[in-house]
Write a structure and sequence with these properties.
It is a single chain. Helix content is 55%, strand content 0%. It is mainly α. It has a domain at 12-19 and 31-75. The longest helix has 11 residues, at 37-47. 25% of the residues are buried.
Length: 77
């Protein structure tokens, strides 16, 4: 079984590299904000999913990155 990663402060660096406009403070990375286009794009790239899949995941499990990662991982099995 593959461990679900925890999205802590290192994600800030990843988000800034993928989408420079998604430079949210690390404490704001505890929630996936799909209302911000740049952040939504960055999160979808980090999760390896499409924006509609990300939106569906947020609708299903809320905005916690760990829960979204778990949801996205389980949907393909």
């Amino acid at each position: 079984m593959i461990a679900t990663p925890h999205f802590g402060p290192p994600v800030q660096q990843d988000l800034e590299q993928i989408v420079p406009d998604a430079a949210a403070p690390a404490d704001e990375l505890s929630a996936v904000r799909i209302s911000d286009a740049a952040e939504a794009k960055a999160w979808s790239l980090l999760f390896g999913c499409t924006l509609p899949e990300l939106e569906a995941a947020v609708a299903a499990v809320g905005s916690d990155p760990d829960r979204i990662q778990d949801y996205l991982g389980k949907r393909s099995h």
